[in-house]
Amino acid sequence: MAWQTIAKSERDWAVTPNLQNYEDTRRTFSWESALRELDGLPEGKGLNIAHEAVARHADGPLRNHLAFRWLGKNGEVEDFTYGRLHTLTNRFANVLQNLGVGKGDRVYVLAGRIPELYIAALGTLKHRAVFCPLFSAFGPEPIRARLTIGQGKVLVTTQMLYERKVKTIRASVASLEHVLLIGDDHRPTNVPDTIDYRTLMERASDAYAIQPTDPEDVALLHFTSGTTGTPKGAAHVHGAVVAHHITGKLALDFHKDDIFWCTADPGWVTGTSYGIIAPLTNGIASIIDEGDFDAERWYGILQSQKVTVWYSAPTAIRMMMKTGPEIVRKYDLRSLRFLSSVGEPLNPEAVVWSKEVFGLPFHDNWWQTETGGIMIANFAATEIRPGSMGRPLPGIEAAIVRQNGSGAVEEIRDADVQGELALRPGWPSMFRAYWGEPERYKKCFAGGFYLTGDLAKRDRDGYFWFVGRKDDVIKTSGHLIGPFEVESILMEHKSVAESGVIGKPDPVALEIVKAFVVLRKGFEPTEELRRELLAFARTKLGAAVAPKEIEFVASVPRTRSGKIMRRLLKARELGLPEGDISTLEAN
Amino acid sequence: MTKDEIRGTVLRALGQIAPEADLSQLKPNLRIRDQLDIDSMDLLNFVIGLHKEFKVEIPEADYPKLATLDGCVDYLASHGGT
């Protein structure tokens, strides 16, 4: 191994880690014992995420303990104790009740990191409706697709986002009955066919009793992307809270006095599982920063808020590396004790850099939308092999598999052999469905495994190493983008005959979305047209999904059956050997 | 280069990144990112564009100074973009 292992000893521990001995904890762990750390609804009425996260603390000694401290873009600060969060989320649950929203109805939230997003999320869970977050940098088309697939009944958003992104597609989402608008700058809204969020909240009662909740009741709907077809809505149940809670404790090493900062946006699964649920079930305080990435702002927050546990992402860490170590040294970051990262594989340089600059290494971990919580991690007490995602959590069985000649899935037991990363089903936060697509869900399971779509290796000591994606999904800035979603929109432009979209390797974002476009007869590949296409794609898809680069080409390579060969486009982009092209049409 | 010329070039660089944006509506003293639908990769590409246009080295630590249109113009005017 080129990178030196980062060893750990008791001297490295500011507090005693929850997981001290990996092997022992794995051996003694059971999901039943993890469940016992939670309370369950009173009188045995089941298990509800919001009860574990908020209600049980608000009725106990943590009532006046800080749950969230919200930091606004412009320097505002607002504190939410468990008691206050309980009252506000009760109100939102009553707002849903008063609107006639029922158990299992989908409540979408499209907003930046503002307090209302967090209140709506937890209030929705109390009401046993399904919370579905939408990333605020999505354009109208990704929003329309996700609302339509999940048949959203309620949308909570801000007036500005509504006017920019929702108004034009609203009529095409037949299921959408109520749009609740949050006024920008705290002004009441007055927009046709919408209701003012704050007026509803003011009128709603503070008291709400969570009704019986089966652990298998659907709680969360998180969208992710595949290579082909529409986005997939991964459904998670209330019982997932067992995994949220225990992974917060074991992988993020939550202790009762921690001040935790998860920098992820709740528009993606990390920002919900660890930006909302896990710190609350563990009864700790979290920082929410409304602002966008800015290295100095972030160091300032770490210092002023005395953050102890920090969960961030490789793209942000690489941007911090570019900003340089001198700036870090201007800040007093002695409160920090544990650093963790997820989103894409964390390159070994970044692990070593953080050890040098913060005095603490980032601990990479691995999971995905479908797994609902952290599955494989580097732990506070165990050594780090820079570049490795670590080892499976207690309760999680991970394997490397391949399909043999007859198509059956078999486990690869030899070390350092590449295959598909697979997990034994049965952990509580495993997704229970792709919304409305049972066939697609079924395809994820074979040979007694959930197949993750990620390629990886396992070394002889059981550490897993990420290799790449098995499919053509693009990993950019910690988000998954489906090439088909982008290609379909480009095809809607009058000049486009064909398009192929790939992830182009990028030193900061891992990959960026790049589109190859074949023009229809009569259109010239001019700079003006390239800009027009870029504008078209950005308007429809939003900055988070639209291509960053567009290149005109004479043709897009396809297999004989007509499938776009994105791998070949990528090989050409990188100047790599093109591999087996026997199924390729003449190009 | 006058400040107006710098401003024009900055807007052109922004138009390369977000050609869909109506830059005539851009308020010069407010954060660009709050007014346009752009992400952190767009901002990075915007700064790279400024670097190419103005032949000015822009260290990452100075990126926050480029958050508004006025900030960009002042920064480039005082860093040899004249």
Describe this entry's structure for a reader.
The complex is a heterodimer of chains A (587) and B (82). In chain A, 29% of the residues lie in helices and 24% in strands. Chain A has 18 helices and 28 strands. The mean pLDDT of chain A is 95. In chain A, the strands form six sheets. A nine-stranded mixed sheet of chain A has the order 2-1-11-10-12-13-14-15-16. The longest helix of chain A is centred in the N-terminal third of the chain and has 18 residues, at 82-99. Chain A is of the alpha/beta class. Chain B has 82 residues and is mainly α. Chain B has one domain (3-78): ACP-like (Non-ribosomal Peptide Synthetase Peptidyl Carrier Protein, Chain A, Orthogonal Bundle). Helices cover 54% and strands 0% of the residues of chain B. Chain B contains four helices and no strands. In chain B, helix 1 crosses helix 3 (40-54) and helix 1 crosses helix 4 (69-78). Chain B is globular and about 30 Å long. Chain B starts with a helix and ends with a helix. The mean pLDDT of chain B is 91. Classes of the chains: A alpha/beta (587), B mainly alpha (82).
Give a short overview.
Chain A is α/β, with parallel strands linked by helices.
What is the assigned CATH homologous superfamily of chain B?
Answer: ACP-like
Termini separation of chain B: 4 Å
Per DSSP E runs of 2 or more residues, the count of β-strands of chain B stands at: 0
**Strand adjacency order, main sheet of chain A:** 2-1-11-10-12-13-14-15-16
Query: Oligomer, anyone?
Result: heterodimer
**Tally of distinct domains of chain A:** 2
Query: What percent of the residues of chain B sit in helical stretches (DSSP H or I)?
Result: 40-55%
Strand percentage of chain B lies at under 5%
Stated plainly, the CATH topology of chain B is called Non-ribosomal Peptide Synthetase Peptidyl Carrier Protein, Chain A
Low-confidence stretches of chain A: none
The biggest beta sheet of chain B, please?
Answer: none
Largest interface: A-B, 34 and 21 residues
Report the span from N to C terminus of chain A. Answer: 41 Å
Rg of chain B over CA atoms, rounded to whole Å, is 11 Å
Indicate the CATH class of the largest domain in chain A: Alpha Beta
Beta fraction of the residues of chain A?
15-25%
Poorly predicted spans of chain B = none
- Care to count the β-strands of chain A? 28
**Average pLDDT of chain A:** 95
Helix % of chain A is 25-40%
